[in-house]
Design brief:
The protein has helices at about 1-45, 50-60, 70-75, 110-145, 155-165, 175-190, 190-200; strands at about 80, 85-90, 95, 100-105. With about 200 residues, it is of the alpha+beta class. It has a four-stranded mixed sheet with strand order 1-2-4-3, with helices on both faces. A hairpin with a 2-residue loop joins strand 3 and strand 4. Helix 1 (about 1-45) packs antiparallel against helix 4, helix 4 (about 110-145) packs antiparallel against helix 5 (about 155-165) and helix 5 (about 155-165) crosses helix 6 (about 175-190). The structure holds zinc ion.
């Protein structure tokens, strides 16, 4: 009797944990994004007091946190904002995103490719809002960084929804690739981590 009761309790705990994880992931994702963007915007305001580049970058988007002009984003010297997300410059040759958009020197001029890079990285930010930071780092950031797939880069399951959410116009994707991407995101939200936790615990 005791054992049955105990088992029931554990199952209930697992279900609760699972539910919390699914509900909390996007909530934490949204809160984190809000806090990060606000802190960065405040930081940019302070920096603009002595940094002329930052001041000009922010003036060019009229200090609009929801700026939608991609050309102004790619032509920025140090920072910018795009649809509520802070844009930074990083060294190297691969743009990236986590709570912000990180562009390289390759995205300094307004070309179809550089504008697609802004759209694509912004799409990754939307993914983070939907699945939360832990899922994002584990199942989008990691495979993207380690390039775990034989498929063409932007058709990979963790990349293709960044394309659709960000509204990339220079690349087309097969319906199959999009379907795979949507399923990948849903499976991630509804339990990849929790299944791994249960099977290892
Ligand atoms: Zn990507």
């Amino acid at each position: 009797m005791e054992k049955v009761k105990e088992k029931k309790l554990t199952i209930r705990k697992i279900i609760l944990l699972w539910g919390f994880f699914i509900i909390l992931s996007p909530i934490i994702g949204c809160i984190l994004q809000l806090v990060f963007s606000t802190v960065c915007y405040a930081g940019a305001s302070v920096m603009s007091l002595w940094d002329e580049d930052v001041k000009q970058d922010m003036q060019s988007i009229e200090w609009n946190i929801f700026n939608k002009d991609e050309i102004k984003v790619v032509e920025s010297k140090k920072i910018s904002m795009y649809k509520g997300v802070m844009v930074f410059r990083i060294p190297g040759n691969r743009a990236g995103s986590f709570l912000g958009i990180f562009l390289t020197d390759y995205e300094r001029k307004a070309t179809p490719n550089s504008i697609s890079a802004v759209h694509h990285e912004y799409g990754h930010n939307i993914q983070q809002l939907l699945i939360g930071p832990i899922n994002y780092l584990l199942y989008i950031g990691l495979p993207s960084w380690r390039q775990w797939s034989e498929r063409s880069y932007y058709d990979r399951p963790w990349e293709v929804t960044a394309e659709s959410f960000g509204g990339v116009r220079t690349r087309q994707h097969e319906a199959d690739a999009l379907k795979r991407g949507n399923n990948y995101l849903l499976t991630t939200l509804f339990g990849r981590t929790i299944i791994i936790l249960i099977s290892t615990g």
